[in-house]
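// run 5 | inverse folding | seed 20
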């Protein structure tokens, strides 16, 4: 590698001096000189294809000011610049902005155009001061080059960086979670910008569509959270299908065209005019996925659900508090397996379906699918049953003619919806039936308890959302379902409104009246038996007691709960002694009677 001479630095400092002498220079005024310096270093170091892109800050949440590429769509690192008047960069290190950058970007330079500090994985590993601002601003002259060798060593380290190619499922999940958290900030900032400018864009339009037609209580912050996760897992899903290279722009063509909502999202992400703040971090997420050996990572969990065991560490790193608040937990695989095997046997013994889940007359629905754990296990059980009875060749028709036609799932949240499609796609690949271009698993993004179908509007994403709603509506209203399985959300309060206020004109005045929604009326019906109210004073869930001082009645109540749980555990232990195989199989009703 050729070592750049002192001439490069002299020319750089001359440009800095000229800019400073104009008297009205701002931080972005110095960007061209720094961009030229970075490119000159790359040129003289036989890195001619290196590209440096810069952007003026638009929001405090924005990305670092410079992104450096190797010319092959691989990110080398980032540079964050501060005004030359910011002489003490150590102070900048303590800012919330830089803390986010250091946590997100593994190769970062912080500079005030005179001092350069290099951070690797959040830790300071090198620094160099090439000149003194005092000479420029007080002595009014071009400063002498200092610490040339130290600066060149720092730059060599910066340009030599490349992302690690060896990730485990957990380390990859952590790296993606860090960047997704940062992406969420960019989406939130973009929503605020569009609102302030009163100029609706794709993101705000998508948010409006979701808030209006799916989740009425959805805040901008909640939406930014869901949208960021959806982008990351959409990229993940696309990456699993990539054969020859991968980047953000290739993702759109790799997402099945039958999953319209994800296609709408990625038409904008891959092909649209992304705001620079979003573009940079999405490219960075795609870059991490591009270098990772996903096939090897997913095979680490042979015999287990690789997607859930990837998704759980992602959520734990991304936002553990949000996970707890929303009740986002995943049913353990042994429990899922036990429930599915139990239903499989019940279908055979009590409903006359000789092939259980593999019987073509069986239609299955998971109404709160999450990441499709139950649907995937039921599909696997059907394939195992069918293969054991009719041979491996028979499953070629079972998947398209039964599983893709008679297995249904609903999910309200966009991020697990994306993961669910990813999981089913991975399972079908494993079972020898990769999804074709016109095939999809019937997992729909919909509010399970809302029977109303959406009408087409001009809002971004609404065409595919309306189509999804129509397909889900056919299942809700017309499809005879034999098996409903799954595990509902653990959140104590539903996001679905039980009633709404309607204003009706009666005579010469408007009258407000409370009208129950579809689910609200069902709840009201549930509170009565034989037309008489149950008389429940407080039918809500047990309220969160966190930080509440317990009185004597509270303590007595919880003592009873603990006693009941202890007795339940004791009884279960006795059952386990009597039926040691209880977790491997179910006992028939006839066996129980005997």
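// decoded
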């Amino acid at each position: 590698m050729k070592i750049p001479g002192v001439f490069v630095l002299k020319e750089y400092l001359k440009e800095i001096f000229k800019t400073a002498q104009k008297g009205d220079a701002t931080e972005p005024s110095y960007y061209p000189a720094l961009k030229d310096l970075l490119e000159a270093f790359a040129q003289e170091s036989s890195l001619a294809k290196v590209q440096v892109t810069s952007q003026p800050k638009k929001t405090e949440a924005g990305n670092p000011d410079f992104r450096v590429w190797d010319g092959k769509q691989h990110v080398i690192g980032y540079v964050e610049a501060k005004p030359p008047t910011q002489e003490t960069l150590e102070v900048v290190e303590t800012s919330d902005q830089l803390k986010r950058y250091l946590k997100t970007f593994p190769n970062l330079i912080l500079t005030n155009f005179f001092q350069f500090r290099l951070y690797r994985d959040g830790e300071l590993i090198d620094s160099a001061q090439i000149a003194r601002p005092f000479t420029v601003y007080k002595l009014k002259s071009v400063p002498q080059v200092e610490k040339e060798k130290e600066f060149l060593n720092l730059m060599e380290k910066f340009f030599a960086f490349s992302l690690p190619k060896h990730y485990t499922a957990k380390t990859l999940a952590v790296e993606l979670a860090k960047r997704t958290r940062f992406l969420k900030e960019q989406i939130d900032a973009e929503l605020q910008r569009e609102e302030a400018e009163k100029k609706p864009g794709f993101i705000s339009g998508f948010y409006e569509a979701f808030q209006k037609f799916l989740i009425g209580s959805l805040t901008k912050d909640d939406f930014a959270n869901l949208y960021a996760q959806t982008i990351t897992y959409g990229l993940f899903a696309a990456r699993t299908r990539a054969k020859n290279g991968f980047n953000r722009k290739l993702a759109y063509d790799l997402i099945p065209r039958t999953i319209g909502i994800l296609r709408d999202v990625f038409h904008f992400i891959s092909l649209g005019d992304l705001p620079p703040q979003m573009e940079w971090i999405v490219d960075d997420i795609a870059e991490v996925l591009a270098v990772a050996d996903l096939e090897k990572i997913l095979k680490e969990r042979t015999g287990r659900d690789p997607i859930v065991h990837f998704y759980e560490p992602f959520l734990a790193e991304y936002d553990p508090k949000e996970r707890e608040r929303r009740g986002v937990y995943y049913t353990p695989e042994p429990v899922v397996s036990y429930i599915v095997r139990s239903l499989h046997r019940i279908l055979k013994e009590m409903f006359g379906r000789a092939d259980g889940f593999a019987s073509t007359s069986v239609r299955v629905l998971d109404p709160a699918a999450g990441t499709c754990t139950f649907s995937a296990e039921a599909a696997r059980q059907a394939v195992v049953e069918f293969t054991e009875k009719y041979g491996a060749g028979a499953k070629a028709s079972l998947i398209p003619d039964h599983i893709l036609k008679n297995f249904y799932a609903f999910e309200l949240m966009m991020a697990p919806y994306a993961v669910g499609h990813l999981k089913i796609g991975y399972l079908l690949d494993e079972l020898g039936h990769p999804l074709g271009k016109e095939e999809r698993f019937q997992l729909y993004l919909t509010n399970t308890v809302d029977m109303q179908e959406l009408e087409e509007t001009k809002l971004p994403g609404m065409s595919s959302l309306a189509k999804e709603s129509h397909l889900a509506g056919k299942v809700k209203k017309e499809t005879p379902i034999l098996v409903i399985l799954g595990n509902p959300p653990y959140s104590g309060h539903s996001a679905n409104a039980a009633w709404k206020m309607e204003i009706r004109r009666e005579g010469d005045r408007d009258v407000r009246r409370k009208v129950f929604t579809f689910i609200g009326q069902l709840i009201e019906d549930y509170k009565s038996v034989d037309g008489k109210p149950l008389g429940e004073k407080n039918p809500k869930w047990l309220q969160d007691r966190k930080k509440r001082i317990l009185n004597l009645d509270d303590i007595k109540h919880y003592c009873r709960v603990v006693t009941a749980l202890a007795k339940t555990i004791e009884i279960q232990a006795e059952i386990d002694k009597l039926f040691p195989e209880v977790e491997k199989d179910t006992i028939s009703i006839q066996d129980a009677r005997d």
